[in-house]
Amino acid sequence: MELVIAGKTALVCGASKGLGYGCAEALVKEGVNVLIVARGEADLQAASARLHTVATQGAWVKYVAADITTEAGRAAVFAAQPEFDIVVTNAGGPPPGDFRAWDKEAWFKAVEANMYTPIALIQATVDGMAARGFGRIINITSSAVKAPIDVLGLSNGARSGLTGFVAGVARSGIAAQGVTINNILPGLFDTDRLRGITENAMQKSGKSKEQVQAAQQHTIPVRRFGQPHEFGALCAFLCSDLAGYITGQNLLIDGGAYAGTF
């Protein structure tokens, strides 16, 4: 399938590993120029080197070591590359825990990373995309937006706020100018985020890693965790020319774990 996005330029956040890396890899394989951003420079260098080996059609790979959840971090990204045709927003989810322990600072930090930062990136890029007649914005959120998880209350709240915002703006005038905005809601993927959740469950239950993982996988009809490259494939399709009729949607990729009809 030809995605018709070779030569486009993408910003992929949190792309040194995990789901962000999976998206960056899928895009460079389609000939998309990619700027990846994350906080750890060593991990970014390693990720950039791997991406170079799979890039096609002359696509370039750049990286910026910065915290995208800060104004300074976003300024560094746009100083390195002022315009993007594709933006994949992604920030590490807030820690799990008991809602009784979260103070105002914890809530503000969650909203800053998982609601306001994607909105700020949309604000900074959407008009340029509209003027050029093409734009794709993908927000990596969580299956918890669809089926909230009690210990992930900070994520439930902040990401749900972003979901509500996107539902409106995606259906505004930008849609007729070739710009789509969609959210991908991952379930349990084999990433550092899942390993943190597993560790938390081990501490609370006293069970071994193997026992916790077996219980987690039992809730998934395909009986395994997702892999970042599977997530990246969906992301690349939604970024493609073929997906121009899809906007304002929340797409679950969870191995069938969500049991609802709608």
Jot down its keywords.
45% helix; 262 residues; globular; seven-stranded parallel beta sheet; 15% strand; alpha/beta; 8 helices
| Succession of helices and strands | EHEHEHEHEHEHHHE
What strand order characterises the main sheet? 3-2-1-4-5-6-7
The radius of gyration over CA amounts to 18 Å
Determine the mean pLDDT.
Answer: 95
> Termini, distance in Å?
29 Å
Oligomer: single chain
Q: What is the helical fraction, as a range of percent?
A: 40-55%
Number of strands: 7
Q: What's the helix count? A: 8
| Helix and strand composition category | alpha/beta
Tell me the major beta sheet. Answer: 7 strands, parallel
Percent strand: 5-15%
Shape descriptor: globular
Low-confidence stretches: none
Tell me about this structure.
By secondary structure, the chain is α/β, with parallel strands linked by helices. Helices cover 45% and strands 15% of the residues. The protein has helices at residues 18-29, 41-54, 71-80, 104-132, 153-169, 192-205, 209-218, 228-238, and strands at 9-13, 33-38, 61-65, 86-89, 135-140, 179-186, 250-253. The chain has a 7-stranded parallel β-sheet, sandwiched between helices. The longest helix has 29 residues, at 104-132. The radius of gyration is 18 Å and the shape is globular. The protein starts with 8 loop residues before the first strand and ends in a 9-residue tail after the last strand.
